[in-house]
Amino acid sequence: MKTTVLNLLRENSEHISGEEISKIIGVTRAAVWKSVKKLQEEGYVIESKTKLGYKLIEEADVVTSDVLRPLFENNNLGQVVHYEQKVDSTNEVAKKLARNEGIEGTIVIADIQESGKGRLGRTWISPPKTGIWMSIILKPEIRPQYASQLTLLGGMCMCMAIRNITKLDAQIKWPNDIVIGNKKVCGILTEMSAEMERINYIVLGIGVNVNQNEFDSSIPHASSLKVEGGMEYKRSEIIKEFIDVFEEVYEKYKKDQDFTKFLPLYKSMCITLDKEVKIIEGNKESVGYSKDISKDGDLIVTTENGEDKSILSGEVSVRGLYGYI
Ligand code: ADP
Predict the structure, then answer these.
(1) Alpha-carbon distances, residue 163 vs 130, 159, 166, 233 (angstroms)
(2) Phi and psi of 236, rounded to 5°?
(3) pLDDT tens for each residue of 8-18
(4) Are 262 and 251 within 8 A, CB to CB?
(5) Is 201 in the pocket of ligand 1 (CB under 6 A)?
(6) β-bridge pairing 131-138 and 107-113
(7) Minimal CA–CA distance to 294: which of 251, 249, 259, 254?
(8) Looking at ligand 1, which atom is closest to the CA of residue 126?
């Protein structure tokens, strides 16, 4: 009913009266009014004028399955969109689905994520509706040791998607955070279930700060696209752009299984290179100079005693010497 009213509003560029809508769909005018109110509560801007009726002024920033699913009609990924208003963690929901009927490309998304996860047991702060809290199920036929490359590619594609939509100068902080200026706007947490030679599934968990105005004091290095760009962005638009960009990269990667093809592009967007960095492994910290990214996606760092060391993603955190980056 609500969706039918919405579609009628979408089809009419001018006002359409409550009476007309009620006749078309065969319900009372009061029922039409109720649907309009619900839509307004969801964030659709609907003008209501006596005598003239209703007019849709602006689409809402909705990420439910009935809004997202049609966007992926021509994609391979996104054929299933599993929306829940509130979850503990989209990665947890996605892993449960992936173990059962969840097919490759399933998108799990929520408006409210109560226990968002970061890497190494950290938390990801996810205020209601203002960010993209989603996980994508992937079931690629690649060797398990290559899974971390997909994390890097996921970060690279989100960086491109953010650049395309916002025109902001987004960059990758190795391995897969997205930063703008000195601030983190997106984090990615990849989880995998695998056997020796075979991946059962990968869950690519993505958190993007989209429309927050302010941040918890525990994350002074965080920012949002809105803070950086000075305007609000539609979560659905960023998600669509990401799926388009990622799908192309992912298909190529699965076909050739050659990460080096993407390495020049990744490096060109990576802010962690040619820098003094601090490497944090548990409670051990060391300092080095980040000089390259290997063909497998590891960070090559020259340590203080002049040796080159390969750092694997997933095990460590890298910080700039004088701040977050
Ligand atoms: P890193 O290795 O850079 O610490 P993680 O991938 O482990 O990053 O992400 C978790 C960390 O990100 C948390 O410890 C916290 O500092 C930070 N964080 C948590 N929520 C957010 C957020 N919404 N935006 C930016 N940073 C966040």
Answers:
(1) 19, 6, 5, 12
(2) -60, -35
(3) 999 999 999 99
(4) no
(5) no
(6) antiparallel
(7) 259
(8) 23
| pLDDT recorded at residue 322 | 66
Q: In what order do the strands lie in the sheet with 131-138?
A: 81-87, 107-113, 131-138, 199-209, 183-194, 177-180, 170-173
Report the C-alpha gap between 208 and 219 in whole angstroms. Answer: 14
In whole angstroms, what is the distance from residue 180 CA to residue 200 CA?
A: 34
Give yes or no for a contact between 135 and 204, defined as CB atoms under 8 angstroms apart.
yes
Atom 9, ligand 1: residue with shortest CA distance: 118
pLDDT of residue 119: 85
The CA distance from 204 to 274, in Å, is 28
- Encoded tokens for 27: 């319900």
Ligand 1 site, residue 124, Cβ cutoff 6 A = yes
This model's pTM is above 0.85: yes
The CA–CA distances, whole Å, from 221 to 180, 181, 214 equal: 10, 10, 11
| Rounded CA separation 90/82 (Å) | 10
Q: Which atom of ligand 1 is nearest to 316's Cα?
A: 2
- pLDDT tens digits, one per residue of 3-59: 899 999 999 999 999 999 999 999 999 999 999 999 999 889 999 999 999 999 999
- The reply to whether omega before 175 is within 30° of 0 (cis) is yes
In whole angstroms, give the CA distance from residue 118 to residue 126. Answer: 11
The model's pLDDT over 189-220, given as tens digits with 9 standing for 90+, comes to: 999 999 989 999 999 999 999 999 999 999 99
β-bridge mates for residue 222, sequence order: 184
Distance 280 CA to ligand 1 centre (A): 14
C-beta separation of 132 from 237 below 8 A: no
pLDDT reported for residue 317: 82
Closest residue by CA, ligand 1 atom 26 = 222
CA pair distance 283, 229, nearest whole angstrom: 36
Residue in 311, 284, 319 with CA at minimum distance from that of residue 148: 311
